[in-house]
Write a structure and sequence with these properties.
The chain has 206 residues and is mainly α. It contains ten helices and two strands, in the order αββααααααααα.
Length: 206
């Protein structure tokens, strides 16, 4: 029960009645219930100690009930939100390796709770949700075949661009260069004809 109370079941500092010292991080139920039982046994301290310990325990339980009601209200709102379901599903999938390590006894439950409640882990799960949602919408609108074809075309074009930037000839540019080298040069072809035309009158003159 002390563990279920969480932060509401711990006092930052507590000084017992008629004492000149104080405790830090004082757990209420684990420490006050035995003291309350002792107060009931001692008739002299029954009035003062029992009332003080009893009031503290009662206030602790009331605060815990208030937190439970607030959590129930918030969870009731989140249950009707589909984006919350998507977020929690992605977070659970990302936390599967941690749950497996906890199941094998390699890490403790507290470490798993700290990691899953970390800001970086929540940001990664949010990014995964956004990317998955956008991919699902594009797949539904375009269809899987067209979407995969578009992804292949875009990745191939980016690959060709990178190769051209680094100075590597692609198969298409190599083919164009080969075709250009195989085409006849008109100026080179016209030169022999001009030479043969100039030699013809000399033969006639002879």
């Amino acid at each position: 029960m002390q563990r279920q109370l969480g932060r509401t079941g711990i006092l930052a500092a507590f000084r017992p009645p008629f004492a000149d010292f104080q405790y830090t991080n004082y757990q209420i139920l684990l420490n006050m219930l035995p003291e309350l039982r002792k107060a009931f046994v001692d008739s002299y301290a029954l009035g003062r100690l029992a009332s003080e310990y009893g009031a503290t325990v009662q206030e602790t339980m009331l605060r815990h009930l208030g937190e439970i009601d607030e959590c129930e209200t918030n969870l009731g709102k989140e249950v009707r939100n589909p984006f919350v379901w998507l977020r929690e599903g992605a977070r659970t999938i990302l936390a599967i390796p941690l749950y497996l390590l906890q199941w094998f006894g390699i890490i403790s439950e507290s470490i798993t709770d700290k990691v899953t409640g970390n800001f970086i882990f929540r940001m990664l799960s949010s990014v995964a949700v956004i990317v998955g949602f956008i991919g699902s919408v594009i797949t539904i609108v375009l269809g899987w075949e067209q979407f995969s074809r578009m992804m292949n075309i875009s990745s191939f074009s980016s690959f060709l661009t990178q190769r051209q930037v680094h100075g590597v000839q692609t198969p298409s540019t190599t083919h164009q260069t080969t075709q250009t080298s195989l085409q006849p040069n008109p100026s080179a072809a016209a030169a022999p004809n001009t030479a043969s035309g100039s030699q013809a009158p000399s033969r006639i003159n002879r």
